[in-house]
């Protein structure tokens, strides 16, 4: 394992909110700042003020969505705010579905709705509150779910297009990934007992997945706590860290780790 770069967050690692893809890392740090980093060397592209404790940071093409008491849309290249849509308190969730952004439903505190990604205009908002785990875009629709039910919404107006009854309640943790789309017809879902089930658009039946680690595109490294190992196909790799809160695959054998108080990128040899 080879050290590439490291950056202090000035907050606890478990409190860091970030969005990661191979060409950009955006992280909430120092309690009041939003910072865009170059994944190659950790250099700062921009550093802008933000409200405290944003609930999500979402990369959407050349835009960045930051959720809180307002949903902000930033230019990913500069960090400049392009629009701001007021949200009800505790809205959370920001899921891009084509030209729309679905929001709301976190813990059932607020109604689900959608805003236009280009302008921030609220397109619709449901009349009643609805609880959902973190939704995911599935083609032109949005998959939501709660307890033992999952359903597809049309993000243009909120109408329900398809639904499934699950053998047990969905896994529930704040803003955690519960659904993962496999292809145009299939999506996997995690349940409260950590089982994985498969949903298909072609049938209302739900089937179990025999090997949960078949979860598609699982990161090639699993965290073994509290020992500070990254477990790869070649075996454990010692990182020297006592606590790793999250890992992100940057490609090319590089891994971003969120540690106790820092971001750290390492290269895994072989």
From TrEMBL:
Show where the Pyrrolo-quinoline quinone repeat domain sits.
69-203
**Top-level taxon:** Bacteria
Ranges in coiled-coil conformation: none
Name this polypeptide is given: Pyrrolo-quinoline quinone repeat domain-containing protein
PANTHER family reported in the protein's UniProt record:
CELL SURFACE PROTEIN, OUTER MEMBRANE PROTEIN ASSEMBLY FACTOR BAMB
Q: Which InterPro entries does the entry link to?
A: PQQ_rpt_dom, Quinoprotein_ADH-like_sf, WD40/YVTN_repeat-like_dom_sf
- Protein species of origin: Herbidospora galbida
């Amino acid at each position: 394992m080879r050290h590439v770069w490291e950056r202090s967050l000035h907050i606890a690692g478990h409190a860091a909110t970030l969005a990661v893809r191979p060409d950009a890392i955006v992280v909430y740090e120092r309690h009041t700042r939003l910072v865009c980093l170059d994944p190659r060397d950790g250099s700062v592209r921009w550093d802008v003020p933000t409200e405290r404790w944003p609930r999500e940071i979402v990369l959407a093409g050349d835009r960045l969505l930051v959720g809180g008491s307002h949903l902000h849309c930033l230019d990913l290249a500069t960090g400049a705010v392009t629009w701001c849509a007021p949200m009800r308190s505790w809205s959370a969730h920001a899921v891009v579905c084509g030209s729309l952004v679905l929001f709301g439903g976190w813990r059932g505190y607020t109604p689900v709705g959608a805003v236009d990604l280009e302008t921030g205009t609220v397109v619709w908002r449901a009349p009643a509150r609805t609880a959902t785990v973190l939704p995911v875009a599935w083609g032109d629709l949005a998959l939501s779910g709660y307890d033992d039910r999952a359903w597809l919404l049309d993000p243009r107006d909120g109408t329900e297009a398809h639904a499934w009854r699950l053998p047990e309640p969905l896994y529930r943790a704040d803003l955690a990934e519960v659904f993962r789309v496999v292809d145009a017809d299939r999506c996997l879902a995690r349940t409260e007992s950590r089982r994985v089930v498969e949903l298909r658009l072609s049938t209302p039946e739900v089937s179990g997945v025999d090997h949960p680690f078949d979860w598609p595109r699982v990161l090639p490294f699993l965290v073994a706590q509290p020992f500070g190992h990254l477990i790869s196909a070649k075996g454990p790799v010692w990182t020297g860290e006592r606590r790793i809160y999250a890992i992100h695959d940057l490609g090319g054998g590089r891994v971003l780790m969120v540690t106790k108080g820092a971001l750290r990128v390492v290269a895994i040899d072989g």
